[in-house]
Design goal:
Blueprint (H helix, E strand, L loop, with lengths): L9 H4 L7 E2 L2 H6 L15 E2 L4 H14 L3 E4 L18 E4 L6 E5 L4 E5 L4 H10 L2 E2 L12 H6 L7 H4 L6 E7 L5 E4 L13 H4 L8 E8 L1 E2 L4 E8 L2 H15 L3 E8 H10 L12 E8 L4 H15 L4 E5 L3 H12 L1 H5 L5 E2 L2 E3 L2 H16 L5 E7 L5 E8 L5 H21 L15 H7 L2 H14 L12
Parallel strand pairs: 2-4, 3-4
Antiparallel strand pairs: 1-2, 5-6, 6-10, 7-11, 8-9, 8-10, 12-14, 12-15, 13-14, 13-18, 16-19, 17-19, 18-19
Helix pairs in contact: 13-14
Bound molecules: flavin-adenine dinucleotide.
Length: 469
């Protein structure tokens, strides 16, 4: 975007109290770098508005002056979506102060809340009411619900509740002319023409600034049982998946895989984690909620396994909530453990389950032909087809060579993903990271329609330019 004259920031900050904005370079600096430290932009001004009205006035003024805006939540984006570009005079609007719970409807199983609410705070609040919030993920202590909606977040319980999109009843957002779009009726049936909120969900800050949402809640769990299994054949994972789906269906709340390299990485950096099943090529973490009690659960599983002749699987069962949390750490500590190694090339993809083994096998051997002494970190919410396929350096890796092969490796992974009928972005979105892949793997018609939607929602291109497109 061409900015013709120097922006008049006074006209923007006039809308706010002194605590709701800063020009302080040190504070702004913290909001300019992404979580993975891959993208670093700059900005002269960051705003923390407290009301929807003031946010609406700010956007109106930005539209007048053609000032581009980066909407920002907890800044945990893994695709560089939440930070400003370099040298483009983007301003940042961080939503952390717009954080009121407007209404908790216990009987209607829904909550109306503002964008800046932190995911973990929402989970804790609703659990006090004996209710469950439908999404959870490793970044829950920092990410905001507005950011979750803007990325159509997935996470650990998609297998039970679906992506966040399936749980949104209504949305309020400030649009690019400063107008306030509000569709917050607390009703589940509302077939009245185009469902515009669906376009805002997953739009990564490019179509509007989400200010509030009405979201479904669910009954609380009385009991949670976690099984941690290891096995050597991918077929065993599919058998386990079929078995738990068939026997527990709605009670199944997570089904995650971890391969041996990922497991060894976590063990290397977290020596306090000592309880795990026998070593195997793959590990599976299964969470079943609301079964009748740990002992009967264990008997039930072992009995069924025996009858079904699911062999070559080693199992351990959690006995308490504390043990549940310890077993979950093997899964949740993978991304932080990756950061202790020199180089990690990450890919968040999804694949049809029946093609996943072939994909892993083909892709691994193609990459091994390029470079040796590397680690293949495979893990993910496999019940939702999600696979994180990351290449990690170790002590004996030739880092320079790995850096040189980085692009080639990523091309192999995405080309094979496409070939096996998968998606190059399962849950993290496009941001700045996957713009090229979007053009390469989506059809011309899809891109054309997406551009037309962007133009119609944001004709001046002030919302998060340089992201997605
Ligand atoms: C350790 C870790 C684990 C993670 N696990 C998962 C996972 O399991 N599943 C998953 O889906 N993601 C995961 N993520 C990615 C990330 O946490 C999610 O994308 C999250 O939803 C982003 O929320 P946020 O508030 O941090 O948004 P930000 O990172 O601040 O922003 C993300 C995008 O949304 C836009 N945005 C933010 N707020 C608004 C708003 N109010 N209105 C309009 N646009 C807005 C931004 O411009 C940006 O494009 C993980 C990240 C980390 C660091």
């Amino acid at each position: 975007m061409n900015i013709k004259s120097k922006p008049n920031f006074n006209k923007i900050t006039n809308q706010l109290t002194i605590k709701e904005y800063t020009f302080d370079k040190k504070i702004i600096h913290q909001h300019c770098e992404d979580w993975r430290k891959k993208y670093f932009g700059d900005s002269e001004l960051i705003l923390f508005p407290k009301t929807v009205k003031s946010l609406s006035n700010i956007v109106k003024e930005c539209a007048n002056q053609k000032i581009s805006i980066v909407p920002q939540g907890g800044n945990t984006s893994l695709v560089g979506g939440s930070v400003p570009r370099n040298g483009k005079s983007d301003i940042i609007i961080n939503l952390k102060n717009l954080n009121k719970i407007r209404y908790l409807d216990k009987f209607g199983f829904s909550i109306l809340l503002e964008s800046g609410c932190i995911l973990e705070d929402i989970q804790n609040l609703v659990s006090k009411e004996n209710l469950t919030f439908p999404i959870s993920m490793g970044s829950r202590g920092s990410c905001q619900i507005g950011g979750n909606i803007a990325t159509n977040a997935g996470g650990l319980n998609v297998i039970k509740y679906g992506l966040l999109r399936s749980n949104i009843i209504g949305i309020e957002a400030v649009m690019s002319d400063g107008g306030i779009y509000s569709d917050l009726k607390n009703i589940k049936k509302n077939n009245t023409g185009y469902d515009l909120k669906q376009l805002l969900i997953g739009s990564e800050g490019t179509l509007g600034i989400i200010t509030a949402a009405n979201i479904k809640l669910f009954p609380s769990y009385k009991d949670k049982n976690v099984i941690f299994a290891s096995c050597n054949k991918f077929k065993n994972i599919l058998d386990l998946y079929f078995f738990v789906q068939n026997n527990f269906s709605d009670l199944l709340t997570s089904f995650e895989i971890i391969n041996n390299d990922a497991m060894e990485l976590v063990k290397k950096y977290n020596k306090d984690l000592t309880k795990y099943p026998e070593r195997g090529r793959y590990y599976v973490l299964i969470e079943i909620s609301n079964f009748l009690g740990i002992d009967s659960f264990k008997d039930f599983i072992i009995d069924k396994f025996f009858n079904l002749k699911i062999t070559d699987v080693s199992l351990i069962f959690s006995k308490s909530e504390k043990e549940n949390q310890n077993l979950w750490k093997f899964r949740e500590l993978i991304p932080p453990s990756e950061t202790f190694e020199k180089l990690c090339i990450q890919h968040d993809i999804s694949l049809p389950l029946d093609k996943m083994e072939n994909f892993i096998h083909t892709t691994t051997s193609e990459i091994q032909n390029l470079i040796d002494n590397i680690y293949f970190i495979n893990f993910g919410h496999i019940g939702d087809n999600n696979l994180h396929f990351n290449i990690l350096s170790g002590e004996n890796t030739d880092i320079e060579k790995l850096n040189q092969k980085k692009k080639l490796i990523t091309d192999i992974i995405y080309n094979n993903t496409y070939r096996f009928g998968g998606s190059f972005s399962a849950e993290h979105g496009i941001g700045q990271l996957k713009k090229k892949e979007m053009i390469k793997y989506k059809t011309k018609e899809e891109i054309k329609l997406m551009r037309e939607i962007k133009k119609s929602f944001d004709p001046l291109n002030i919302f998060n330019p340089g992201k997605i497109f």
